[in-house]
Write a structure and sequence with these properties.
47% of the residues lie in helices and 17% in strands. It has ten helices and eleven strands.
């Protein structure tokens, strides 16, 4: 299934004249640790399928779905027999929609969609993914990519709304209305996304929210599943990854332009988040 692999970086070979790739996969083949710039949705349609990511193992049953965020290293294990949909759309085609960028940051590195975790929306998401497969494999190509992306947007919206409802449930004791609470934290995440290379201070961002530092830190973690500073560093490393793909940008300049106070702190954080050094990342990308 992996057609082009340099080190652990996979170059996704999109379908001609599109920015999407889909495999109706039945191969009895494991795939080594790898990552790519696309998001990836996997759904077994016959037998199980196993995914390792972020030091965790996920065994997907028939109909379970996993969404792996761009840039996350993962390993895939196939049973001797079985079938699964593996869909790799270009996430950059959707990043102009701020809600999607915020959701991908919140659920990173992945989210698993099952009938138990998504009781009201799992069936619809499963149906949409099957429709994407059928459209991709159809001989009719007129506006096929547009149709597929429209269905992908619906999938992401369903995931986002379900995720938001869970966040609202966890924040049931928040002193402000839930709708205002969610809106506020989406705005804060968008602000961090846009200003991640600046000197972002927890006290200042907490003041922006109108909460105390302690309360903001607790509620921010509930909303994003990570601490404030980890979220900021994830955004900085994501920006650094993009800059490192341009050979004219030195690693020192990338570190400075992404808000790191020293080269050593940049290298250390890059390795924590990406599992490799900036130099190794660049070599994998350009090798």
């Amino acid at each position: 299934m992996i057609e082009t692999l340099n080190g652990i970086f996979e170059t996704v070979n999109y379908k001609q004249n599109t920015s999407i790739k889909l495999y109706d996969n039945d191969q009895y083949e494991d795939y080594p640790p790898h990552w790519h710039t696309t998001m990836e949705l996997i759904m077994p349609t016959d037998n199980i399928y196993t995914v390792e990511c972020n030091n965790q193992t996920f065994t997907l049953r028939e109909g379970d779905i996993i969404l792996i965020c761009p840039g996350c290293v993962h390993t895939l294990f196939a049973p001797p027999t079985g079938h699964r949909i593996i869909f790799q759309p270009d996430a950059n085609a959707l990043r102009f929609i701020k809600d999607i960028e915020t959701l991908l940051n919140a659920i990173a590195p992945l989210i698993v969609i099952t009938p138990e975790s998504f009781p009201s929306t799992h069936g619809k998401i499963r149906e949409l993914l099957i429709e994407i497969k059928n459209e991709y494999l159809s001989s009719s190509s007129s506006f096929s990519e547009a149709i597929i992306y429209s269905k992908l947007l619906e999938i992401i919206a369903l995931i986002g709304r379900n995720y938001t409802r869970k966040s609202e449930t966890r924040a049931v004791h928040v002193m402000i209305k839930q709708e205002e609470y969610m809106k506020k934290f989406i705005e804060i995440c968008n602000y961090i996304d846009e200003h991640c290379s600046e000197d972002l201070n927890l006290d200042d961002i907490a003041n922006m929210s109108g909460f105390s530092k302690f309360y903001f830190s607790r509620m921010f973690r509930q909303f994003t599943n990570v601490s404030f500073y980890k979220y900021v560093n994830m955004k900085r490393i994501a920006k650094a990854s993009e800059l490192l793909t341009e050979p004219q940008n030195s690693i020192t300049d990338v570190a400075i332009n992404c808000g790191f106070s020293s080269l050593s702190s940049f290298i250390r954080m890059f390795k924590i988040i990406k599992g490799c050094t900036p130099t190794e990342f660049r070599n994998m990308y350009w090798s």
